[in-house]
Amino acid sequence: MKKFLVLGLVLSLLMVANVAMAALPDDAIIIEAENAVKIPSNVRIVEKEGASGGKAIDADPNAIVEYEFEIPSPGNWYVWVRLFCPSGDADSLYIGIDGATPTPEDAKAPRRAARIYSAPGDSVNTNGESWNVWFWDAGMEKGATTYFRVRRGGPAKMYIIGRESGTLIDQILFTKDKDYNAEVDLQGGPAAK
Ligand SMILES: [Ca+2]
Ligand SMILES: [Ca+2]
Questions:
Q1: Smallest-distance ligand from the CA of 58
Q2: CA–CA separation, 134 vs 113, rounded Å?
């Protein structure tokens, strides 16, 4: 009897630990939006409560912020962006990777890119519009995903293109796990490895 109690206790602890530790995919790549290699003058680094590292970026329309990072392997890399949107006039951005095909692609972007845009229900923490709350977004509609078809692993260049001033961008997460949902997993919170 005692053995079963101990086993039960161990299993309970394991379950609690599982809930407490957000299970990021092993291949997750996390990029801080403020850690860009090139930030033009029409992009502001802002201090914002709740932002990872305390900071996020606010890019004017068509301002291009560039990043460099390592992609370990080719394939379809799904993207999640942690956002704070003050209103429906400040709730979107473009994102792209040099030489990678975005799916879906927004032909209106000044460079090859996908659009990330807040829609009702995107945040697990509100029922309606995803405004004035930090949340992870992956596309145009609730449940939408966006990926980049990357042809080879190695050094990669990513860019964020401003679309609406006031949209705060905190972190970008890439994973090849198409079923991973950063918003559900992290409950709107920041990602850390
Ligand atoms: Ca969305
Ligand atoms: Ca940040």
A1: 2
A2: 23
User: How many Å lie between the centroid of ligand 2 and the Cα of residue 23?
Assistant: 20
What is the C-alpha to C-alpha distance for residues 170 and 166, in angstroms, rounded to an integer? 12
Residue 146 lies in a domain: yes
Considering the entire predicted model, what is its pTM? 0.89
Q: SS3 for 191?
A: coil
CATH of the domain at 152: 2.60.120.260
Distance CA 183, CA 126 (A): 12
Q: With beta carbons less than 8 A apart as the criterion, state whether 21 and 160 touch.
A: no
What is the per-residue pLDDT across 143-167, written as a single tens digit (0 to 9) for each? 999 999 999 999 999 999 999 999 9
Q: Which ligand is nearest to the CA of 82?
A: 2
